[in-house]
Amino acid sequence: MTTGTTTVAAYAAPAAKAPLERTTIERRAVGEHDVLIDIKFSGICHSDIHQAREGWGKAIFPMVPGHEIAGVVSQVGPGVTKFAVGDRVGVGCLVDSCRECDNCRAGLEQYCTGGSVGTYNALDKNGEPTYGGYAQKIVVDENFVVRVPDALPLDVAAPLLCAGITTYSPLRHWNAGPGKKVAVLGMGGLGHMAVKIAHALGAEVTVLSQSLRKKDDGLKLGADHYHATSDPETFKKLAGTFDLILSTVSAPLDLGAYLSLLRTDGAFVNVGAPEEPVALNLFSVIGGRKTLAGSSIGGIRETQEMLDFCAAHGLGAEIELIGASEINEAYERVLVSDVRYRFVIDTATI
């Protein structure tokens, strides 16, 4: 063990598509501006599965996934000013960025052009691989840590660090609110948070899901309407309806069909990231001056804003708490949409 580093238990994928298994990793020594966090809960995001199985391209192994991290500060570096031991904190998808490009200066670290550093499956500025939240501790620069408000339990707050901010950011950017008709495509880990947040922002919310299986849940979480996309009548009935459609689906879609549901100047925004390319007839956007867009997570400042918003409105994720030994089973269940709506690992079980 290198001086000052901490050896911690973790769950890692040893190779692409291999089952995750218990192991140990080393966390770096706590530097001048670092905080050491005792991880209490770590959400399982669909993107963890994409990366552990190399669905998005070549990855770094062994891989410790997890970028929905909630815990408590147990040590701070001598230069830390934002946090103290005992603070309830979160870490999302980023642990560093160049901090100098226009986007970083604007608080848009998620679009850093100088090279942002992912919480896992990335190389830090020293060329060392980063390891995520399926572990008992993590060391992170204080500038990439956010505060979890006391009103939010840590277990339901963990998924907000990806699922919450990934939906909050585009909803705010495209001005979801009173007088706006917003459709959420897909009612899974991201989609259920999109419904809650869009409703809290004051928009009229419609869920578009393959079936009506989760309709009762959708209405309970804040949706005003719920339609099955497997029914062709849905597309006739809702043609030209929405100001904004937020797609949380990570499978290829018939984009033309969904673009037909937008009003003039409406936007179809992707936060789900399919592994395969999708086809588009450009007349689908030309007619009606429509926008086909994408959105990543949020910057650190906006992530804090999202957590404060969720606390103020009593919004946490709907979770199923699991032990670490259930991670591989949970991955299989995510792939068949058998979770309502986010698996969260109790890291005390690692």
Helix share bin: 10-25%
Instruction: Name the overall outline.
Output: globular
According to DSSP, the number of beta strands is 17
Continuous helix count: 11
Mean pLDDT: 96
Radius of gyration, whole Å = 20 Å
The span between the termini is: 20 Å
Query: What series of H and E elements makes up the topology?
Result: EEEHEEEHEEEHHEHEHEHEHEHEHEHE
Measured by DSSP, the beta-strand proportion falls in 25-35%
Uncertain residue segments: none
Report the major sheet: 7 strands, mixed
Helix/strand-derived category reads alpha/beta
Q: What structural keywords apply?
A:
alpha/beta; 350 residues; six-stranded parallel sheet; seven-stranded mixed sheet
Would you give an account of this structure?
The chain has 350 residues and is an alpha/beta fold. It is 24% helix and 26% strand. It contains eleven helices and 17 strands. The strands form four sheets. Strands 3, 4, 5, 8, 9, 16 and 17 form a seven-stranded mixed β-sheet that branches. It has a six-stranded parallel β-sheet with strand order 12-11-10-13-14-15, covered by helices on one side. Strand 10 (181-185), helix 5 and strand 11 (204-209) form a beta-alpha-beta unit. Helix 4 (163-173) packs across helix 10 (300-313). The chain is globular, with a radius of gyration of 20 Å. It starts with 5 loop residues before the first strand and ends with a strand.
